Amino acid sequence: xxxxxxxxxxxxxxxxxxxxxxxxxxxxxxxxxxxxxxxxxxxxxxxxxxxxxxxxxxxxxxxxxxxxxxxxxxxxxxxxxxxxxxxxxxxxxxxxxxxxxxxxxxxxxxxxxxxxxxxxxxxxxxxxxxxxxxxxxxxxxxxxxxxxxxxxxxxxxxxxxxxxxxxxxxxxxxxxxxxxxxxxxxxxxxxxxxxxxxxxxxxxxxxxxxxxxxxxxxxxxxxxxxxxxxxxxxxxxxxxxxxxxxxxxxxxxxxxxxxxxxxxxxxxxxxxxxxx
Length: 276
Ligand SMILES: C=CC1=C(C)/C(=C/C2=NC(=C3\c4[nH]c(Cc5[nH]c(C=O)c(C)c5CC)c(C)c4C(=O)[C@@H]3C(=O)OC)/[C@@H](CCC(=O)O)[C@@H]2C)NC1=O
Prior knowledge:
Layout: H1 3-11, H2 17-34, H3 45-48, E1 49-51, E2 57-65, E3 74-85, E4 91-101, E5 110-118, E6 121-127, H4 138-146, H5 150-157, E7 163-165, H6 171-176, E8 182-187, H7 195-220, H8 228-251, H9 253-274
Antiparallel strand pairs: 1-2, 2-3, 3-4, 4-5, 5-6, 6-8, 7-8
Helix pairs in contact: 2-7, 8-9
Bound molecules: ligand RCC.
Ligand RCC binds next to β3, β4, β5, β6 and α6.
């Protein structure tokens, strides 16, 4: 893999210290815990780091696939940051870490996204998206969402006055998340500079690490029996979600932010990783 690209990804530039430190800690926790099961990043250097013509948008993508399915139940890990200067003089920063499991297990995936569109507003998505229907499989709900007490973190976070529910404009996105999903918008007063960073450091950071720890222990490193028929259903469901989320999250944003040529190259590389 391209050293320059790797260095770029892990710098998480343009972010506040609490935001950068959180992303770095999450990425290193995942890579340390699952490292032996993960292949090195094999993205081309101009996908590991890319920018638009005018240089107003910079981004980095880092994906690592699991070893051959016989040894690992990890499909792949994806880390990304995007920084766009806005015409208003502000900046948009989107950082994400997602982990997808393969059909050797039916356990939930992991997703965190922090979308900062101004010094006083941040959208946080933190969830273990289910990979089975919770109505049809009540013990799945019990095992992964009740026993793990994931809802406690959601309730603690929502007690902070600046934290409000975030409702995605996409009904599809809303249908993907678990009942314990944290989808919030943190809106602070301009008269309180540094308040967003304080909330990230004191609340978002510990909760994100708790949820990742639960995912690593109960999902990535847990053992689940998946029969042949079930495996085929999982494969289909996982595939549909991966293709659709690319379309909803970045299908329209990327061409707008990076221009058609760069967007095609990066989206093509992402589709390759997503649909192996
Ligand atoms: C499984 C559960 C999922 C949930 C719950 C979920 C939520 C959301 N993501 C959004 C977005 C988003 N995410 C990323 C990271 C990224 N996504 C992919 C997907 O393949 C890749 C490969 C990468 C790394 C490159 C970028 C770049 C980006 C946007 O620009 C977009 C955004 O910030 O618009 C404001 C929002 C879109 C809908 C909305 O406006 O409400 C919404 C908050 N996205 C899920 O997948």
